[in-house]
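2024-03-11 09:14:02 DEBUG pipeline.ingest accepted 1 chain
2024-03-11 09:14:02 DEBUG pipeline.ingest length=85
2024-03-11 09:14:03 DEBUG pipeline.predict start
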Amino acid sequence: MTLNANKLALATVIVFAVLWIICSALVALMPNVMLTLTGYMVHAEFETFRWSLTGAGVIGGLVLWSLIPGITVWLVAAAYNRLAS
């Protein structure tokens, strides 16, 4: 079985982009709740921190948090196809 690396990478980019937009919206709507949840996820206390949510930050994060996983998944699929052949 071979994987279509391009389609898998594109699907990954789309999913991560949607997740980033949802996360950014939640931070904008419920900053304190999201800060607490983030602290739970990384075993830290962020009560003295605050979010810095800017338009440029949202767009920059969207690009980085979408492209990096997409490229990574493309590389994994390409390596898998090479090993499988």
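2024-03-11 09:14:41 DEBUG pipeline.report The helical segments are 5-29, 31-41, 55-84.
2024-03-11 09:14:41 DEBUG pipeline.predict end
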